[in-house]
Amino acid sequence: MQKLKLVMIGNGMAGVRTLEELLALTPSRYDITVFGEEPHPNYNRILLSPVLAGEQTVQDIILNPLEWYAEQGITLHLGKKVVKIDRKKRVVYAADGTEAEYDRLLMATGSKPFILPVPGKDLPGVISYRDIHDTEQMLAAARQYRHAVVIGGGLLGLEAANGLMLQGMSVTVVHLGEWLLERQLDKVAGQLLQQSLEQRGLRFALQAQTAALLAGESGRVSAVQLKDGTELAADLVVMAVGIRPNTELAESCGLYCNRGIVVNDTLQTFDPRIYAVGECVNHRGIAYGLVAPLYEQARVCANHLAGWGYGRYVGSVLSTKLKVTGIDLFSAGDFMGGDGHEEITLSDPVGGVYKKLVLKGDKLVGACLYGDTADGAWYFRLLKDEQPIGEIRDHLMWGENNLGDTGHAGENKAAAMADEAEVCGCNGVRKITIVKAIREKGLTTLDEVKKHTKASGSCGSCAGLCEQILMNVLGSSFDATPKTKTVCGCTDRNHQEVRDAIREHHLVSIPQTMQFLEWRTPNGCATCRPALNYYLIATWPGEARDDPQSRFINERAHANIQKDGTYSVVPRMWGGVTNASELRRIADVTDKYRIPLVKVTGGQRIDLLGVKKEDLVNVWRDLDMPSGHAYGKSLRTVKTCVGSEFCRFGTQDSTQMGIDLEHDLFGMWSPHKVKLAVSGCPRNCAESGIKDVGVIGVDSGWELYVGGNGGIKTEVAQFFAKVASHAEVLEYSGAFLQLYREEAFYLERTVHYLHRVGLEHAKQRVVADADNRKALYARLKYALSFEQDPWAERIQGEQKHEFEALPA
Amino acid sequence: MSHWKKVCLLTEIPPLGARVIQHPQGDIAVFRNADDEVFALEDRCPHKGGPLSQGIVYGKTVACPLHGWQIGLECGTAAAPDEGCARRYAVRLDGNAVLLNTEAAA
């Protein structure tokens, strides 16, 4: 088959990323030709500031060396400007006469700096700050001249000014606004930034308008004249007052433009053969200038160029960070506040820290941080997910790591960490490894970091740290848009949409659900199938059939797989109570099957480790005890203390309460594991404060706590209700867990579910509304009526093939 | 003499599942996908030796039960960015019978 011809105009980051994505999808669909106006291969424009500051070289920031183009079979025309597109003949022409035919054309012409229309704007020594050429001119000027003026106190202007100062020039920043970075910072933070930059030696003229650029005797620029008559000495003037999409070529061939080449959600222009990505594009009225959204556009555009036809770009939310070494600032959302908004501020001008959080109702809508930006990524996430923050409001200001995660020595500030420090304690990933991967592979999202380095890929406790590292390396181009919002790569639907569809459209099987929701893969993947299986059986008990092949091995084999492929067996001990006969059987089984390790678990039971899979059913038979479900997203244990039967402090019979709860909830599948505890007095020996449902006996009845967690991040359970009777403990606990079963997303623990929906939501449905509570509890009991002991079923011969190997 | 040996019936392997064949050279996992195609791989993930037969099967891929590496059933190689390869064995269907040939490379 003859290949199609793809021509790309522009050789920058967004365009080349599109080609990379395209080649990954379909390496041989197109003959590709690239025209680049600059004489360089694709380089990382974001890192021009470190080059100017002398922290990196031009060579360091090349993303795709010339060899890459050759290896991919791409015809590369460097230093050739395309001047004409003939859309009828489908040919592009460069200024030197080079021409190329196309079947598909990709416009990635980027943006142009805005040049103030003042007298003297064309003098030698007046430049913009956009590419390697500009950077080289600035470096050359710094060697020869003394005075520089940067017009524009935005991100780019300040980075240019900082760089020139580090190269030894005396620099003044002329800025029209009342304070620096007025689009990214409020006034207080802007002034703190100004002070800090002034201490480093920069000078500022604020609320100052440029009237003219004056020439010296040599004909080179020598001064900047302001409207009020002031003259500032200047051998170099850098205009950094903004950029605008470069649409000259697109307009000249009649392509519809309006502050950018107008594209739809597939990055297609008004000419169906022509696509456009990057800073030259106007998507839903916005022209993006940061790299992360542009990479997202690249991904979608490649999907359509490859003929896959399902990607969709729907826009991005942005945050800001200044890449000036040693200055930390971050802002996102509506950080100015105003009517109808509330503000929480922390101000320590001497210590150089200022934080402002803007709230509307119980949502965070904006954040502006200066001096300590460690929690920027977390605030950004709260903001974009629109999470209710009512309950964490009083410690919102202290950040995500207020309670401390485990696994990375309590480190919570990526910038302060040494390169060799371990970020991910599960997979042994050091900071330097992550930084390198981000730089060399051009990663922009947490998901990509996870994929390439494994950091945060296991327990996830270091996800916040990894995000901070991303933010520090990428600066303003960091995009915290959560890419994992969909269930997985097989679908564009998120968990809520899937749950809703299953309920509203009465879907009862995985194939039916996948077909209805237009899954892209024939039978899903290891991420979506277990989620779908849970949603189905939880929504339609007795109707949807459990699919063992869509369960993770532990839930399929009803035992925990170990690193060597053997299994562990934890029989149920109701409420942590056992007896001589059970212990004798456990001892006998241990001998008979030569079980290498017997261990007491944290949940008050006994774990037999190292059992061969073929022995599982026989071990269960000989134990003659029910499954402890120690392997499932299900009810695990109900831990108890001795209680009033023996303990001299006990106020309630916590042991019996625990046994009854465990029987009441036996066989309950849930979005994630569920652990309970019952203590007989407030001394809380059963550790009810860190359980999904914790019950504490007091003299007048029982207190119920929910949403506790003793894992990666210790979370203290929150008070839920006080009840008087034994029966009420069962009803309230069961109703709460049923609400969780019906509303939580797969793999969401109770604490995360409650963070998402709010404790108040659960209280209203379970505590305040008695009818609803009874209905929830009844639905739970109905669902549990279908559950048997899985070990007993398998002793009877069910799923036999699972446990038998075949001879060769 | 033919090296093809019948190891089981297709119906003895659950769709989107696997069976373990105990072989003197080490366990072999025989997979069946949704289209009733069969595949055979050494039952060891190239990462940390996890038993691939215990993983979740989808499309023409199995996810290792230990750390989720995605191993292609046809080629035995791990999906990028992971790197590694599990040994393949020749396997085919004769009617309902699953035939394995441990002498020939797949």
TrEMBL record, chain A:
InterPro entries reported in the protein's UniProt record: BFD-like_2Fe2S-bd_dom, BFD-like_2Fe2S-bd_dom_sf, FAD/NAD-bd_sf, FAD/NAD-binding_dom, FAD/NAD-linked_Rdtase_dimer_sf, NasD-like, NiRdtase/SiRdtase_haem-b_fer, Nit/Sulf_reduc_fer-like_dom_sf
Pfam families xref list: Fer2_BFD, NIR_SIR, NIR_SIR_ferr, Pyr_redox_2, Rubredoxin_C
Annotated Nitrite/sulphite reductase 4Fe-4S domain residues: 632-769
Domain NADH-rubredoxin oxidoreductase C-terminal, chain residue ranges per copy: 319-385
PROSITE patterns for this protein: NIR_SIR
Residues covered by the BFD-like [2Fe-2S]-binding domain: 423-470, 487-537
The entry's keywords: 2Fe-2S, 4Fe-4S, FAD, Flavoprotein, Heme, Iron, Iron-sulfur, Metal-binding, Nitrate assimilation, Oxidoreductase
Cofactor or coenzyme needed: FAD; siroheme; [2Fe-2S] cluster; [4Fe-4S] cluster
Top-rank taxon, per record: Bacteria
Listed SUPFAM superfamilies: FAD/NAD(P)-binding domain, Nitrite and sulphite reductase 4Fe-4S domain-like, Nitrite/Sulfite reductase N-terminal domain-like
Record domain FAD/NAD(P)-binding: where: 5-283
CDD domains in the cross-refs: NirB_Fer2_BFD-like_1, NirB_Fer2_BFD-like_2
Nitrite/Sulfite reductase ferredoxin-like domain span: 562-624
Pathways per UniProt: Nitrogen metabolism; nitrate reduction (assimilation)
Bilayer-crossing regions: none
Family: Belongs to the nitrite and sulfite reductase 4Fe-4S domain family.
The protein, known as: Nitrite reductase large subunit
UniProtKB/TrEMBL annotation, chain B:
Keyword list, A-Z: 2Fe-2S, Iron, Iron-sulfur, Metal-binding, Nitrate assimilation, Oxidoreductase
Keyword Signal attributed: no
Domain Rieske: 5-100
Pfam families, per database record: Rieske
PANTHER family: 3-PHENYLPROPIONATE_CINNAMIC ACID DIOXYGENASE FERREDOXIN SUBUNIT (PTHR21496:SF23), FERREDOXIN-RELATED (PTHR21496)
Name of the protein in question: Assimilatory nitrite reductase small subunit
